[in-house]
Structures are given as structure tokens and as C-alpha cells.
């Protein structure tokens, strides 16, 4: 879930809580009914917020896992490329060493 989506959801939940609270406080009901409505709204808001947090957490875990897999693949590709380059360097160095041995052998004669 992107940061903007999280902010929008948080704003919507907060707006719903405030709106429900104001609506209940101005409703022409008895105090016990009003308190029950407030409690019910608070529980609903708590559940909505818990769901939003849970969804955001799940999205974060999915994104983190995808990035981990992507990183591991790139690392494996890089290590593989480095291995081939190292082999090429070793072959070139072995050729150079053989050339130097031949030159040294000629100089020794």
C-alpha cells in the first residue's frame, strides 16, 4: 500500500469517526442510548482501524518479500557475472605467466 493510500484511508477513517461522534452528540436521544451509540461507533472505528492497519501490514510484507526476492536475483546475477569475469582474468593471467616463462627461458639460454 502506498503512502498516499495509507494517508487517504487514515483520513477517511478519522473523518468517519468524527462525523459519527458529532452526529450522535446532536441526536435527540436519551443519555444511555447516546452512550451506547458512542460505544458502538468507537468499537466500529477501532475495528475499521485494525482492519486498515492489518491490510497495510500485509501489503508491506508482500512488498518487502518481493523486494527481497528481486535483490537476491540481482545479487545472484552479479555474483555469476563476477565469477565469469574472474575466470577470464585468471585465464589471461595464466597466458601472461606462460609468455613470461617462455621469455625467461629464452633469456636463460
UniProtKB/TrEMBL annotation:
Keywords: Membrane, Transmembrane, Transmembrane helix. The chain crosses the membrane at residues 6-27. It comes from the Bacteria. Pfam families: YtxH. InterPro entries: Desiccation-related_membrane, YtxH. This is YtxH domain-containing protein. It comes from Flagellimonas sediminis. The lineage of its organism: Bacteria, Pseudomonadati, Bacteroidota, Flavobacteriia, Flavobacteriales.
Amino acid at each position: 500500500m502506498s503512502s498516499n493510500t495509507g494517508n487517504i484511508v487514515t483520513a477517511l477513517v478519522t473523518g468517519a469517526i468524527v462525523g459519527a461522534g458529532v452526529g450522535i452528540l446532536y441526536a435527540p436521544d436519551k443519555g444511555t442510548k447516546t452512550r451506547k451509540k458512542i460505544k458502538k461507533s468507537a468499537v466500529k472505528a477501532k475495528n475499521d482501524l485494525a482492519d486498515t492497519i492489518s491490510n497495510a501490514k500485509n501489503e508491506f510484507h508482500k512488498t518487502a518479500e518481493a523486494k527481497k526476492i528481486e535483490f537476491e536475483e540481482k545479487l545472484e546475477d552479479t555474483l555469476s557475472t563476477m565469477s565469469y569475469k574472474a575466470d577470464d582474468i585468471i585465464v589471461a593471467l595464466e597466458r601472461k605467466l606462460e609468455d613470461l616463462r617462455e621469455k625467461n627461458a629464452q633469456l636463460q639460454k
